[in-house]
Amino acid sequence: MTLMEAFALLPEPRTGPAQRHDLREMILMALCAVLCGANTWVDVAEWAEDQLDWLRQYIPAKGGAPSHDTFGRVFRLLDAAIFEQCFRHWIASLVGVIDGVVAFDGKTLCGSRDGHNTALHMVSAYLSGSGLSLAQEGTRGKGHEIAAIKNLLEVLVLKGCIVTIDAIGCQTEIAQKILDLGGDYLLAVKDNQGTLADALKDFFADGERGFGSLPVSQWETLEKDHGRIEHRRALWINELSWLDKPIRAHWPQLVGVGMIERQRDIRGKVSIERAFYIGSKGIGNAKAFSEAARSHWAIENGLHRTLDVTFREDDCRVRKGHGPQNFSALRKFVLTLLRQDTQYPKRSLSGRRKTADRNPNYRASLLGLPTLG
Description:
Helix content is 43%, strand content 21%. It is built from 15 helices and nine strands. The mean pLDDT is 90.
């Protein structure tokens, strides 16, 4: 599926003379501009104006280049749920059947606060192994993140995947939904599940003496980098007879619990953190547990930090209507294109954006653009 095919069924939100600029052409212009470094609607409009002759190799663009106000207005009106659906269909055509770890996590778009409305909070589903964002769901305020996770679960095919979610998603309903979809869960446990959290803390606090004859799997790693030493120890146990029966019965198909202890030594300053988890049958031992948990952490660097550093997402001041969520989708479209690139594998994502701006052939190949006949 090409990008333009992905937008084929996108409904036009405008009527009458307001349709001077073709909707799909505007989407293509915006994608090209963001690919080439644009981070605001002003950037998008200026890039489209400068590159209009190049764009006309692929689209008629009879109305010329839209103004930044026109871009902002159209994307503000464009139904974010349907635009996101186009994104999911296109991703699905690239990825096919997904497997491995799918991490769910949220990020607030700091610049999207609009008057009395809180900033938009985007919950993303991230395929850790390939670094691709599979889908996103927007909500105003972090308090609605659970509803956003549930909505994302409704639209993804997760059979055979391990789904990881931070403590906010440690809910029996969410765990059951993941199982119903054919996946397995690994959920972080914190004080929002107080009884469970206390039981895990007490159990692992006793150390190996407290485990007695219980078979506990262990996996350790050591990393050194620029004066920073990090020792990670993962413990995973499938024998849960020590856990109170009401707790075991509360969590669907619960087969194991674990702890990850991270000891960091940064130039002589030592800190220790412990995190606790519950999981279903997809987690068989401490190594699998450690790798799945580590894959979840990848969403912070691989997606959230990339959006901030490479795309300046937190500096974006798009606020109105569906605009913030649609611009977020544009960034993730482009991030997916860049992650799929094989021409310049040694260049950074920022470097590839600059290359796309300088090199029209590279730009067209990333976007899969056919010239007009």
